[in-house]
Specification:
Blueprint: E1 3-6, H1 29-37, H2 42-64, H3 66-72, H4 79-101, H5 105-112, H6 118-121, H7 123-147, H8 155-172, H9 177-206, H10 210-230, H11 269-286, H12 288-298, H13 300-305, H14 310-334, H15 349-359, H16 364-383, H17 391-405, H18 407-414, E2 425-428
Helix pairs in contact: 2-4, 2-17, 3-4, 4-16, 7-11, 7-14, 7-15, 7-16, 8-9, 8-10, 8-14, 8-15, 9-10, 9-14, 11-12, 11-16, 12-14, 15-16, 15-17, 16-17
Length: 431
């Protein structure tokens, strides 16, 4: 299944007014803005997808609460009970998500009373950025492959190999931090790139579809991680559970806000992630290699006719995507997992990168914004337990992606107008 970004925005040239005709009067700003809001363009489809997802989440919160369901059984006799109970459960849930991801109002009150430090105010946003950082890398890994017409489902395996590559350099060498950190980060990127190149080589030489090969490689990476952690080389010398050795202090990524509080986990990996997004933007829009990626993704047959090496483009693109996912693994190994990596350290960041790339429409800036959104949902859901079911975050993510991937559905539900350039979608060309 080849994935391309369809952005047909061509419009017929405007007709010049004939001599003697008065120029057409431009509608007022509010009229133009209203038309924009009623149009199924890429921005409004994204906004409406978020609103629809939160509306569906609200309905499910109401249905899943036994007490609220009970008030709806006598709705026609006392409707205010059902409406008030529904409002309370939904508002409390979403406020809890906000407080866990952005700013906790109770902490604000405690800070005003002098019983909390300034660093405590920043803890929710720090957790959001911490969870968002690996998603930036894996979203870029999937998005870059999208632009070449490839579906990189193997970001999870590439992340795992990048994590192990950075980990080995992190604990086996004793170097100054100025040398050790870049070396460990580079090792993670190289390990991820080597693992990511495999499905690219297979596709270029044998025609094996990258979706199948990368899914299988994910399983290989996960099982290899379990075996590697149990070996004497990687296993912790002081702990009995399945955990690796910790990396040296000189290899740990410095915290960005640790001077304000030890519980603020966001670290230098966030800066590296933003820099990686800027680099991918430059690569795609300003470089010859990026032009080849976009050309092959748009039409591989025309690109081959023009003299481009399709197989080499597939291989190098998948290697570059693997390197980005490997950076996510390095961020985990040298950051939040610097005290030792377990089989759960990688979580589902590689698979979540697919949804981030879809929401960001394979655009580096959109991917960064989507990563922040999903990081906020994860941080908020974990912080709001047990008041808010942790699955609400997964539900919202899945619903958002559902609407983003089907703009025609959003257009039909809200009766929006078709934009002049047509709907912008991620299209699958087939096997």
């Amino acid at each position: 299944m080849e994935v391309t970004v369809s952005t047909d925005t061509a419009a017929p040239p405007a007709e010049e007014p004939e001599a003697g005709e008065a120029p057409e009067k431009r509608p007022p700003f509010m009229v133009l803005f209203g038309r924009y809001l009623a149009e199924a363009n890429s921005v409004m489809v994204t906004v409406y997808s978020l609103l629809l997802a939160f509306a569906i989440g609200a309905v499910l919160l109401i249905v899943s609460d036994e007490n609220v369901r009970g008030t709806w059984t006598y709705f026609f006799s006392r409707p205010t009970d059902a409406l008030e109970a529904s409002w309370n459960v939904v508002s409390n849930a979403y406020i809890s998500l906000f407080e866990g991801a952005i700013l906790n109002f109770n902490t604000v009150d405690r800070y005003g009373a002098g019983t909390a430090e300034f660093g405590d105010l920043l803890r929710p946003i720090s957790e959001t950025l911490t969870y968002a950082t690996p998603l930036i890398f894996t979203g870029l890994a999937v998005g870059l492959a999208f632009r070449a017409g490839l579906f990189n489902i193997g970001a999870q395996g590439q992340l795992i190999f990048g994590m192990m590559g950075a980990l080995v350099i992190g604990f086996s060498l004793n170097l100054p931090a100025a040398v050790h950190i870049p070396l460990a980060v580079a090792a993670g990127a190289i390990a991820g790139a080597a693992f990511g190149a495999v499905p690219g080589v297979l596709k270029a030489t044998t025609g094996a579809h990258e979706v199948i090969s990368s899914i299988m490689l994910n399983n290989i990476a996960a099982l290899f991680l379990v075996w590697a952690i149990s070996t004497d080389f990687l296993h912790s010398e002081t702990r009995s559970e399945l955990v690796t050795r910790p990396v040296e202090d000189s290899a740990q990524l410095p915290g960005l806000l640790s001077w304000l509080g030890q519980n603020l986990r966001v670290n230098l990996a966030l800066v590296i992630g933003i820099a990686a997004a800027v680099f991918v933007w430059w690569l795609l829009s300003k470089s010859t290699f990026g032009y080849r990626i976009r050309a092959v993704g748009f039409n591989q047959h025309a690109s081959a006719t023009a003299g481009m090496n399709i197989g080499r483009t597939y291989t190098t693109t998948m290697a570059a995507a693997g390197g980005l996912a490997g950076l996510a693994g390095a961020a985990l190994a040298l950051g939040v997992g610097s005290g030792g990596v377990t089989t759960n350290t990688a979580l589902e960041y590689g698979f979540d990168g697919i949804t981030v790339a879809l929401l960001g429409r394979a655009n580096p800036g959109g991917i960064v914004a989507a990563a922040f959104l999903f990081g906020a949902l994860k941080a908020g859901a974990l912080s709001a337990q047990p008041e808010v079911p942790v699955d609400i975050s997964t539900l919202l993510q899945a619903t958002i992606v559902l609407f983003i991937a089907a703009p025609a559905l959003v257009k039909a539900l809200l009766r929006l107008r078709t934009p002049r350039g047509g709907l912008v979608t991620l299209e699958a060309k087939g096997w």
